[in-house]
Amino acid sequence: MWKALHQLAVPERLYTLCGRGLPWLTALSALLLVIGLGWGFVFAPADYQQGESYRIIYIHVPAAMWSMGIYAMMAMAALCGLVWQMKMADLTLMALAPVGAVYTFIALVTGAAWGKPMWGTWWIWDARLTSELVLLFLYAGIIALWHAFDDRRQAGRAVGILVLVGVVNLPVIHYSVVWWNTLHQGTTNVGQTLDISMRVPLRICMVAFLCLGMTLTLMRLRNLILWQERRRPWVASLAKKGEAQ
Fold first, then answer.
1. 51: which strand partners?
2. What is the dihedral of CA 197, 185, 124, 174, to 10 degrees?
3. 109-132: per-residue pLDDT in tens?
4. What is the dihedral of CA 111, 112, 113, 115, to 10 degrees?
5. Which of 79, 101, 99 is nearest to 89 (CA)?
């Protein structure tokens, strides 16, 4: 296992591996998004209490779920970078960060759009909403901190420490509806509270958002690898092959 992980630390090998997976992930993301969102917005029945407005769940829930999931992946990458000094861990972390930031932003915007008809206001300093906003600030801070250093090794250390410190916000987001009296609904058991005609497209959307996040991450990771290794012979050779084609 460790041997395989250290092989992934070789930039050229990781770049090639990402390229092999991209076409499949891109196609799978597009297919699942079309099926999940099409089913959820067109064919799923209206909710007996919320009517048609509940359909935003097919964007809001997957985005909110993976806004935290991506941060957890970043924490694992930060740990690998700080403890085992894996060369590509910092780039993986920074490939994930913008995707997680966008998902968090989508979760906040769709949550506000959903909250308006339900709560009568676009925003309230609810514990779940506030902690999700803190997550967006963490993502923004991580991206800004990375660009604040010219030395990539120092940037990786600083960003890794910030990511690991920020992990404390994840349980706050998840358990905020349990720990405090909030307007936001409690943790929902999808298998028990949603009819199967609503539940299946939601689960498809969850997988679709994961695949889309992975696709965007691999695309960005390849760009970051090329930029960091731009003076290496293998990158020059790759550029020549591109020009020849």
1. 47
2. -100
3. 999 998 888 778 888 888 888 999
4. 80
5. 79
Q: Is the dihedral of CA 237, 238, 241, 242 positive or negative?
A: negative
Residue 185: Cβ within 10 Å count: 10
Q: What is the mean pLDDT of residues 54-64?
A: 94
Instruction: Residue 139: name the closest of 102, 113, 178, 111 by CA.
Output: 102
Tokens 């990458």 correspond to 77
User: What would the pLDDT profile of 73-85 be if each residue is shown by its tens digit?
Assistant: 999 999 999 998 8
Q: Which residues of 190-214 are buried (b: 16+ CB within 10 A; e: fewer)?
A: eeeebeeebebbbebbbebbbbbbb
Q: How confident is the model at residue 180 (pLDDT cuts 50, 70, 90)?
A: low
For 38-45, the CB contacts below 8 A with 24+ separation are 39/200, 39/201, 39/204, 40/198, 40/201, 40/202, 40/205, 43/197, 43/201, 44/197, 44/198, 44/201, 45/195, 45/197, 45/198
How does DSSP classify residue 87? T
CA torsion sign for 21, 144, 236, 81 is negative
Answer yes or no: are the C-beta atoms of 122 and 186 closer than 8 Å.
Answer: no
CA 7 – CA 48 distance, rounded (Å): 53
Distances (CA, A) of 95 to 69, 189, 201, 223, 224: 14, 31, 28, 9, 8
Instruction: Give me the amino acid identity at 117.
Output: P
